[in-house]
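thought: fold this chain, then report.
action: predict
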Amino acid sequence: MEKGPPQTTTASASASASNSSAFSFISKGWREVRDSADADLQLMKDRANSFKNLAASFDREIENLIQSAAPTFSVPAIRQSSEIDFMKKLQPKITEFRRVYSAPEISRKVMEKWGPRAKLGIDLSRIRSAIVAELDETEEEDMYGIMEFNKFRKGRRLGFTEEGQFGDWEPIRVLKTRLREFEKKNSSGEIFGGFRNNEFVEKVKSSLKAICKEPQESKEVPPLDVPELLAYLVRQSEPFLDQLGVRRDICDKIVESLCSKRKNQFVMPTLAEGEPLTVDSDKINDELDLRIASVLQSTGHCYEGGFCTDFTKHDVSDGKRHVAIVTTASLPWMTGTAVNPLFRAAYLAKSAKQKVTLLVPWLCRSDQELVYPNRLTFSSPEEQENYIRNWLEERTGFKADFKISFYPGKFSKERRSIIPAGDTSQFIPSKDADICILEEPEHLNWYHHGKRWTDKFNHVVGIVHTNYLEYIKREKNGALQAFLVKHINNWVTRAYCHKVLRLSAATQDLPKSVVCNVHGVNPKFLKIGEKVAEERELGQQAFSKGAYFLGKMVWAKGYRELIDLLAKHKNDLDDFKLDVYGNGEDAHEVQSTAKRLNLNLNFLKGRDHADDSLHGYKVFINPSVSDVLCTATAEALAMGKFVVCADHPSNEFFRSFPNCLTYKTSEDFVAKVKEALAKEPQPLTPEQIYNLSWEAATQRFVEYSELDRVLNNEHNPAPAKVRPNGKQIAKSPSMPNLSEMVDGGLAFAHYCLTGNEVLRLCTGAIPGTRDYDKQHCKDLHLLPPQVENPIYGW
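observation:
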């Protein structure tokens, strides 16, 4: 199609063209002329059919636009209906235009005009003028020309000129009027103003962007080189290297060293030109992940699972998720792993969003007499369950709807703890195996010989309660034992947990772990604190006594530190008297040492911290540095008392409370004690009260354990990485996770080792704990254990 000034046909030009055509016909013969004419006629027919098909296609597009686009326009209803009416009126005009021009009469007239020397002239200038004139009236005089198609074949010329064959056609005038109205509304943004911001349009644009990728993204990805492979291998082997004593910072330095050898080439796919290469551990890890992912995607690799992966996990069918809480102790043993999991189960069940099961150890009568206070025993699990529920309801004020189950356990006198007997995981039915919370995961899995928790459950969270390394260091050959226990703890928590929560930084730094206090305070203590605040507002004396200490009477629970501080500053604290409440294995030795040093300590029997006899004390002393998170400290703060404790990671959570006085040196301890005895504690604010409550603790637990994501059935996609050009790209799901394969291998190795009774006994296991015994079968109504049970799953 060419644009230019109008061409006029003169007599001289026509004569010249006729002479040239006649000379060509004579020279080539009549047969050749006839073949050429047939070919030209066929070409004309093809062009006419093409024009007809194009008109039909345009008609179909108009119909599709009317049918599909109308519901998605986000314009006002009146304006939307007017535009749809316009399109409906426009459709028959276009159809008529197509029908007229494709009619047989038009083709016949064209053929009649076609001859050996003739030119076919169809006047399209009127149509052009009708469409163009309204688009830009200021340039109407400059917009002219002839649509001309020139084709030279054997001396013949076919063209479209301005020689008119048709008059001012009615459909053209209607089309012209409609286009003028359409253009005016389009220029004012009435039609497409809402359409541009429509969700449908945004989806279309995003789809087009996905199809039309940038050129640099489609370039061939270079293969991995040796430094990249070694860096990825070292980083993914960190779990195994950690078991060998190679620290994480050393692994990071090795990875940085290998990656720095590539310099700019290492980050070539993701760094912009001219961007300097900086040694950043996180950035190098991200770039390495993206590099591996891009290479794997370019090869079409798809990773479908790891070592010993089990894909037959619980599927939610009843609309509610199931949470199983497994702990290492039970009431009436007043220890943290018995009390705190019980409150956690109650407050998780209180929301009624999920079903909760609390799995606690069942001890035979002989072990009950050793563990439970005042030689309290139970003849059946049902009797102990009633005791637990009554105790809980008295303190929470509501009846918690959750299930309590029992698993076989045996008490170890040497370790002063309960060791599970047999495969604990089998006491959670497969239909309820959805989410599992392991209270003290290292303790539960030291001698675990059964199905892997992460294979049976969709999400496994471990909560670390105890600083075992601190206790072990105080024993004979403590350094060596602590070294071994440290790596065993790393082993089992990595193999059996998806997420690990540490109550404070005082615990061992375990794999997959974060620090968060997910424990709350018994509501009864908060009520005592409210009562104290009311008495002080009325001008009454809330505290009539001085200082006290409460805890299990074993050296590791702070008694060693307490006696050392008081002995060193006996003269500075001459008038200071301390009441000590507690029972325990080291009670006689502790009391005799205090008597020998002539310390002003008054030893009393242990009792519940909420006992009325303890309400009058103003200062709670807690010098322990072996606790992970002292429950007694939180309870004292909730009752509105002063707390004097060591500046230690285990007390980090309590530092935000004004009544918590921490000390760094022994001299500072004396100053803080005198300050607490001389002043009155500040009343707790509503925010401080809430932070101590189990409602807040449950909220923190759901957040940090990623339980909210699991309960809401949300997947955990790989975090997106941002390129320098501002685009986000995620890790490829096809990347093989060597860490998961290592975890599976560690779990398999642990299963094999714990199946050997000799190795179990050498590492301190109680004889016969590989399987539960006959007494457990009788008490819990269990079948005798098999030699090798297929439910173990390996």
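thought: worth noting. The chain is about 45% helix and 10% strand.
final: tokens above.
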